[in-house]
Structure formats: C-alpha cells, structure tokens
Amino acid sequence: MQKLPLKLEKRLEKRKNDNSYRSLPLEIKGIDFFSNDYLGFSSSEVVRNRTSEIMDAQAYKNGATGSRLLSGNHPLFSKAEKMMAEFHDAESALIFNSGYDANLGFFSAVPQKGDIIFYDELSHASIRDGIRMSLAKSYRFTHNSLQDLDSKLRRFDTSSNDFQVYIVTESVFSMDGDIPDLEGLTKLSKKYNALLVIDEAHATGVFGENGVGLIQQLGLEENVFARIQTFGKAIGSHGAAVLGSDQLRNYLINFARSFIYTTALSPHTLATMITVYENLQLDVENVTRLRANINFFKAELDRNALTKRFINSDSAIQSCILPGNERVKSIALQLQENGFVVKPILSPTVPLGQERLRFCLHAYNSKQEISEVLERLANFVQKSN
Q: Would the pLDDT of 179 be above 80?
C-alpha cells in the first residue's frame, strides 16, 4: 500500500500530540448518557415489530435500487413525507438521506449569488459546509446574540429586491444544549425582510406537544422559511427532511445536488420513520418521561453543587465544562469504569478551553442512574482540581 503523504502524517501526529486524536470505538457497554436516542426508539421492540409489518405487507425490496429521480422513489416516501408535513404543520416535506445531506443540499442550492447569509457562529458543521458551497456571501454572528445580528443586518439595505437575506440558526445547539431567542429572531427576520432557516435536529421529539419541536411549541412555523428535521436523534432512525412550501420542495428536487445524485433511503428506513411518527401521535409517555428526567437532572446539579460547571440548558443535552483535553478524557474514563457512558468533547470540536463532558438524557434513564452519575461526577471533579 502507498504511504500517506508527509503533510497528512504531520496533521495526524499533531492530533495525537494535542490529545485530540479520534478513533472508532468498539461496542460501548454501560448506562447510556451519550447517545442521541433520546426516546429509546432505536431499540424499541414495538417499533421493530411494526416496521416489519409494514415491510411484509407490501413485500418491499431491501434496497432503494437508485436515486429518487430514477428508480428509488418507492411509495413509502410519499406516505412518510405526507405524515411529516402534517405532524409538523408544514405545507410539504422532502426527505434527504441525512441531516448532513439536507443542510448541504439546502444551503448549496437555495441562497444565490448576491444573496447574504447570517449564521450563528456555533452552527453545526453541516450548515457551515453547505454555506461554503453556496455562491452567496456569508457572515457569522455572535452565538445567540440578537444585538450582534441586528448590528450586522443594519449595514445592508435589506429592502432591496436585488438580493435575499437568510438568517440561520439551530433551535437547540448540539454541543451546548442551549436555545436561541427564536421569537426575537422571528421579529428580526420580519424587520429586515429576511428568510429564517432553523435546524430542529435536537428539538424534535423533545419539545412541544407529542415532540413536534420548538418552532411549533412557540407557534412560529408560519414565520420560518425552512425547517430541517433530522431522524437520527429522538426519532431513532436515519435521514432528514426539509419542511417548507411546495415551491421550496420542487426547487430542491431540481437543484439540491445531495438529493439528486445519491441512492435513496431504503424502504426499511422509511418504514421505521413512519412507525415512530405513528408512535409520537399515539403515545406521549416517552416525551413526558424525557421532560421529567431533564428537570430532575437539573435539580440534581443543584444538589451536587455542579450547576455552575454546566451550561444552562433545558434540553436533553447537558454539558459540563472541564477545560483541557487530558482532564476531560480522564474524568470520562473514570465514569465509564463505574458503568456510566459519558463522552468527552475535545478541542478542536469545541474551542480550546471549552472542552466538556456532554450528557445526553433519555426517557429510559432512571432517576437513580441520574443521581448516581452526578454524585460520581462531583467526586471526580473535586479530586481533579
């Protein structure tokens, strides 16, 4: 085999020296405080059995056989998209193969040359990568700062018809678990004639009635140009959908390259999505348990004098700041050795000095598990000071 070029070898070596080298984990055993499976659907026997029923009823193929524009647009797509649009109070939905593909396809295709994109500086890598592929100009604004965004928007004559302005953020941020002022962003978008684009990846299944998401919980869906819903988190499956108008859907079908030039999702994946959305509409217990666990976790932070170490969050993501890659990896390992799987988030994934333990809470975590893991954390943090 040919050797890796020297420049690339040096980049890998730097990662090792910085204690930020990544490798694929083996099977992880222990109490789950790390996965995005917030409602437990990925391992649900009910979901598995119902998905099999859907597949068996129509004798679907194992694979999609091609892109949706060729041979892969099997009937489950229209059923799933109709269900999602109705559930999320949208005119239409278009399914992509992943949240990454959805953001890449949307941002590379929709904003045009001469247009302007303002995006939160902590936006997900998929958003930023999609924006890089766009011909539009882009400017980042300080995380969750309406004041900074407003000051940047004022520099442009947004009443002009020569260009379109887009404001982009997430309803729940994946590393901090915090939430922007979505109502304030809506007012700014109206003030400056901008189109609002919200990634709801970590809000779906967690917020709102039946887990519809934060935008609907706040009644803002009519004020948002596009919502990106991903299915690899609380939905427990794979894929994503862009929610918006029928016109937006038709435009993406014609111009989003990550949609056009890829093999479609398998029928089994679509059947799983349909099953989960059926479950969300019929059974609210999972969402209720998750909300109760989030509240209990925050109360336990207070009891263990840990609140100041955590970023304030009302979501299923709770992040404990422990600066230094070596330190945060050490404490994560100690928790894992005690049976609690919590993952360290290292720089450069987060800024230097913002390294953290990222706790993901689930409907299936018990209160005893939450109490025990935070008691251990408080002990390990105190010893590491």
A: yes
Q: Are residues 153 and 266 in the same domain?
A: yes
Residue 50 lies inside a defined structural domain of this protein: no
Whether residue 238 lies in the annotated active site = no
- Do 46 and 245 meet the contact criterion of CB atoms below 8 Å apart? no
DSSP of 288-331, one letter per residue? Answer: HHHHHHHHHHHHHHHHTT-GGGBPP-SSSEEEEE--SHHHHHHH
Give me the number of domains the chain comprises: 2
CATH classification of the domain holding 315: 3.90.1150.10
Q: Is 79 a catalytic residue?
A: no
The helix (run of H) or strand (run of E) holding residue 83 is: helix 75-87
230 in the same domain as 331: no
Within a domain: 15:
no
Among residues 81, 101, 176, 199, the one annotated as catalytic is: 199
pLDDT at 25 over 90: no
Candidates 92, 97, 174, 279; catalytic one: 174
- Ramachandran bin of 241, using left for φ above 0, alpha for ψ from -120 to 50, beta for the remaining angles: beta
pLDDT digits (tens, 9 = 90+) for 113-168: 999 999 999 999 999 999 999 999 999 999 999 999 999 999 998 888 889 999 99
Q: Is the dihedral of CA 68, 69, 75, 80 positive or negative?
A: positive
H helices present in 110-220, as ranges: 125-133, 146-153, 182-191, 214-217
Does residue 14 fall inside a structural domain? no
CATH at residue 252: 3.40.640.10
Burial 238-250 (b: 16+ CB within 10 A, else e): bbbbbbbeeebbe
Q: Tell me whether residue 233 is one of the annotated catalytic residues.
A: yes
Whether 1 is in a domain gets the answer no
* Domain assignment of residue 324, given as a range: 30-44+284-384
* Residue 236 phi, psi dihedral angles, 5° rounding: 70, 20
